[in-house]
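Morning, I've got a small favour to ask if you have a moment. I've been staring at a protein lately and its backbone has me curious. You're getting the sequence in one-letter code plus the fold written as tokens. I've dropped the whole record in just underneath, so have a look:
=====
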Amino acid sequence: NSDSFTLTRNAAITLDQSNQALVGIAEYLNEKISPATGFELPVEKHGKIEFKLVEDASLGDEGYQLKVKHSDILITANKPAGIFYGVQTLLQMFPAEIKSKTVQPEDKKWTIPCAEITDKPQFPWRGLMLDVSRHWFTKEEVLKYIDELAEYKMNVFHWHLTNDQGWRIEIKKYPKLTEIGAFRDSSEINHFGSDVYDGKRHGGFYTQEDLKEIVDYAAKRHITIIPEVSMPGHASAAIASYPWLGTSGKQIKVPGKFGVHYEVFNVADPDVMKFLDEVTDEVIAIFPGSVFHIGG
């Protein structure tokens, strides 16, 4: 069919092999297609799929041009991010079975319609927020979430890591934040303000090694993670861990009730400000993005 390109195991990817970001995108494409196709595309000098960086001011930092011909596919962009988004569009053009996690029948045709697409984002910040502090998500669930952000060409993952109902990030200097603050005895259920509880322990946290792995996973998908550590409010889980952080000085439990809580960090105390500085230093060391969210 001269109106389409058919992907076979004889195809290969051509790119500048000195550019690690482009090599990473080729690996990503193979990760996506190999479970369904049963083959991987090698990187060679004369492949049928080419990733090419060019200088085209009209495409900006994340735009791309995708040309699908009967014999080959060319994706051009100014930056690797644009190539990555071109690959996402390419994946959308495959038959739906490309998303299958199992190898499809031998006679399955992986055809893509011939097309020429020029695309660039309208908004430079395209993100979603995930609140893991009120409801715990495992590392594997977060990685899946990031993968789905990438499929929708989003580039920011706002990660809400602390709140009244749970502290989810390991801080080496203050281990009780996760020993105590990462777990609550029970959670309010049915509806907001129901005052009915499930009686089940709930929680979990990410080690700093987990966080570095997730940051790396996101970066390979051209996603920046914005960590959120709430202050001066939404601090009950931290105060349950270290009562001296709060304005009342009282020992409290990590609450299972949702809504507004009146335990807040005592920012009039220099020791509490030192604590916030030290926590912030550890968090910033893990997340290389330029934005750190403090809730407010």
